[in-house]
C-alpha cells in the first residue's frame, strides 16, 4: 500500500476555492468537510434568532457568511455556526472591505459551534484558538450529547457549554435540558437548550 499525502492548501487557495462553500473549513492547510445535517442547521437557525433578539440594542450583528482566521501565520480558516461581530470594531479588519474574513479577536463578541461528529475540535482546539484570540464568549451546543465523557460527563446527554474568557483562558459552565442558560455578554437572553432542539 502506498501512502499519498493530502495536498495542503494555503489560506489564499482556500479563499479562492471554498470561501463561498459553507461546508468546508481549513485547519493547518487541511480541508475539513463539516458535513452539516438538517437537525444541525435547525439548532443553529433557532439559536441565531434568539441571539439576534438579544443583541438588537447593541451595534452588533450576525453575518450570513463569515470566515474566521485565528492566526495569520497558519493556514487555518474557521467557519463558526454563529458569530456575533461588533460593527464598530470591524473597520480595523484588513480583509473586511473586500471579503467577509475576520482576523482580530476584538471584532468578535461571541462564537457558537453546534457539535457534529467532529466534536473533538469544538471542545479542545477551538477552545484554545478562540481564547487566544480574546473572544469574550464561546458557546458549544452539543444537542445530541456527542462529546466525550471528559467534556460532558456521565451519562452523556445534551449539553450547552458557555465558555467565558477570564484572562487568557475560558471558564466553563454547562447547562442541561430544562436549565435556564445565563450569559454575562447577553444578560437579558432567555434561553433553554430545550427551545432550540429539533422537533
TrEMBL record:
CDD domains from the UniProt entry: DUF820-like (cd06260)
InterPro entries listed in its UniProt record: Nuclease_put_TT1808 (IPR012296), Restrct_endonuc-II-like (IPR011335), Uma2 (IPR008538)
Keyword RNA-binding included in the entry's annotation: no
Residue ranges occupied by any Putative restriction endonuclease domain in the UniProt entry: 12-191
Matches recorded under Pfam families: Uma2
Protein name, entry field: Putative restriction endonuclease domain-containing protein
Coiled-coil boundaries: none
Organism this protein belongs to: Chamaesiphon minutus (strain ATCC 27169 / PCC 6605)
Keywords: Plasmid
Amino acid at each position: 500500500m502506498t501512502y499519498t499525502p493530502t495536498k495542503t492548501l494555503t489560506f489564499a487557495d482556500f479563499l479562492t476555492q471554498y470561501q463561498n462553500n459553507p461546508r468546508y473549513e481549513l485547519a493547518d492547510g487541511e480541508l475539513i468537510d463539516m458535513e452539516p445535517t438538517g437537525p444541525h442547521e435547525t439548532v443553529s437557525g433557532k439559536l441565531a434568532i434568539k441571539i439576534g433578539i438579544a443583541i438588537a440594542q447593541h451595534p452588533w450583528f450576525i453575518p450570513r457568511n463569515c470566515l474566521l482566521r485565528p492566526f495569520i501565520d497558519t493556514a487555518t480558516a474557521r467557519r463558526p455556526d454563529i458569530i456575533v461581530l461588533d460593527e464598530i470594531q470591524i473597520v480595523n479588519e484588513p480583509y473586511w472591505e473586500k471579503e467577509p474574513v475576520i482576523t482580530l479577536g476584538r471584532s468578535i463578541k461571541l462564537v457558537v459551534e453546534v457539535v457534529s461528529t467532529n466534536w473533538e475540535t469544538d471542545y479542545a482546539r477551538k477552545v484554545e484558538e478562540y481564547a487566544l484570540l480574546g473572544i469574550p464568549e464561546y458557546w458549544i451546543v452539543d444537542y445530541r450529547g456527542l462529546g466525550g465523557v471528559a467534556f460532558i460527563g456521565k451519562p452523556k446527554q445534551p449539553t450547552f457549554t458557555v465558555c467565558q474568557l477570564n484572562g487568557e483562558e475560558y471558564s466553563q459552565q454547562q447547562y442541561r435540558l430544562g436549565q435556564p442558560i445565563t450569559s454575562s455578554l447577553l444578560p437579558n437572553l432567555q434561553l433553554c437548550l430545550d427551545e432550540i432542539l429539533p422537533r
